[in-house]
Queue: 4 jobs
Job 1
Amino acid sequence: MKRLAPALFVVAAWAAFGSWAEAHRAAQQTDPSALRPGIEADMAARHCADLRIDTERFRAFAHANHLNHADFFTLKRSVALQQGIDAEAKALRERPQEACAALWERYGSAGSVAQLLVKR
């Protein structure tokens, strides 16, 4: 049992350091500017019955920003980006019509920054 205590201490210290390092990385991280629009457009397509991804525009948008489709789901996100995504998900749950209209304005309407959505 006495031999086990130092090993447990080392494991606990390593876990604490790893947790701190990950939190520090996430707080300091900057995200590719195209990450949020791609994620939010995908959320709109999944939660808004009348919206879907414009496949060709999405592909061109991702290519122009040096991202592939998987990057929108697998890249680590900063704390700020994750908080924004969480707020958007909450809005989609609590006020779906209003949230879908806002997402359409941002990613589907003529003149939007990134036209990634189309009406079904």
Job 2
Amino acid sequence: MYYLFSAPWFRPRAGLLAALSIACALAASPSLAQDTARKGSIMVEGHGEASAAPDEARLSFTVVKSGETAKSAVAAASETMQAVLSAMRDLGAEDRDLQTAYFQISPQYNYEDQSQPRREPQIVGYEARNSIMVTVREIASIGDYLDRAVEAGVNQGGDIAFSLADPTELLNEARRKAVADGRAKATLYAEAAGVELGSIRKITERMGENPSPMAKGGVMRAMAEASPSVPVEIGEVTVSADIRLVYGIGGS
């Protein structure tokens, strides 16, 4: 039996008609309802970390020299730096292990005599800074590098950055842990929501940060007071991996 509504107060909206049509279609076709449910998804993020002892290190050394002129300051810094580079090579450092990291020439001012108003500070000399990075591939010899650097004339710096020459294996371990972490979260969410966890639809690795492992430590705050045998603790380096997993719901 069909009824035709023509009363002016009955003006069904398009949205209501669409909703009624979908509801009727789903009721008439259970398979369509199941397909619609399977279109849902669970998105989780997984995190994993792995640690290992480092097998190489990068050391930073700086030579600071002063002179009455810029030329004399640079000459003094260059002479000392040549001695430092020679000492590093004597210990086994190759050309690929030595890299200039920083060079600067700065005027030195006298701020004490300000008796006259608006008098600008006078330049009384110049300072030259020359910094190098040294890659130490025999990590047990780090103390020797520090000792020789001080002996050669290094008077500032001494930062140490430990790392792995090849972090691939460690990074892959962190990735496996990240996937396991994401899978555990997705399983928990599916159980809590009372739905069946489907297959993985998408895996994305978050590469916002450099995945190479690195652990830094400062040594030689006062280079001139360093002892002939500098103690160094290498500890461990840690690498992390972060991924995003998208699972289907309902066997999808």
Job 3
Amino acid sequence: MTFKILLDLAWRYWHWAVISLLVVIIIALSVVYAQRGHAIDNIKVQHELVLATERADYEARARQIEHQNYQGVIDAVNQSTIRQKQIADKYDSVVVINDSLSDSITNIETSLINANRAAVIDYTKSVNGLFTECTGRYLEMAKNAAREQEEARRLRDAWPTR
């Protein structure tokens, strides 16, 4: 009998049952929608965190590369300074040797005025050997200068531009 009463009440108030069911469905969908909104917000926050991390990593790498380039410039300047000092030292010694050689040639010239023909021939051979050696040294110096110029050009071309 109780079942019959319930069935009779359900038949009489069926529209309220449908409305109640629809309210429950609407509430369930609202909860699901709110959860999806929170999930989307969480994804946005995670994306912003990933972007911030990548930006920080990029800036750190850029600073590291800039530091390496700066260190490379400092090393190049230091090496250039050392080479310039070596060149200056070699130049000074060459000037001293050249002055000594000029004095020796002047002394030989004065002594050759009264010398015999064999002494003049020996002197000519010595001067010829000296000129040959000077020519060789000059060519070697030109080769070194060309190599240094090529190295400077290569460094200039390899250096990053801003």
Job 4
Amino acid sequence: MLLLFTHALPPLRRMLEHLWVWQPAAGWPAFPPFYEVPFWLCAAALAYGLTRPAGTLAWGALLRQGARMGWPAVRTTVLFVVMAQLMSDAGIPTRLAAGWQAAAGSLALYASPLLGGLAGLLTASNTASNALMMPLQAAMAGTHTSLLPWLAAVQNVAGSALTALSPIRIEMAVALAGLAGGMGRVYARAWPYGALPLALLTAALAALRLG
């Protein structure tokens, strides 16, 4: 309900988008903490904990457990973001895009959904997928600035869709369901859920190019 109110009501959304906006460094995107989903999830969890009877929650143990479980994800995401920044500063995405466009010609842009999807599949994180591939997608747009928002959208959607099929998530699901050695069976049935978004995004790019 909190997420619905904070993101669906225009006056409240505009206020939160401009409330205590934090920019880590020059040139970096601004970060409005009161508009972000994790803030409200943490606020709801804290409010629930405070309403519980005194002594029923071991706050120290819960915080330590949460930090221990969350640290690998935080560490990995930061690593991917820093690596993407270094790659961008070194001009690697531009060179890769130029090489790919020279090899594929007019069909180069149609690899955009596949690149975004593979990054999401391998990293299991849309943030990491975008950090790795968004500079390459931007370089593929080249001088066609009108394509840049579309390629950014394709990257974000493809990366998000394929994170659901990442090996680590499938392995966790198989373990929780008690299906030992069942990853092959899961992928045999789940692959259309990854192929369909990629096909639709490729068709959308084709329609955009023809239009």
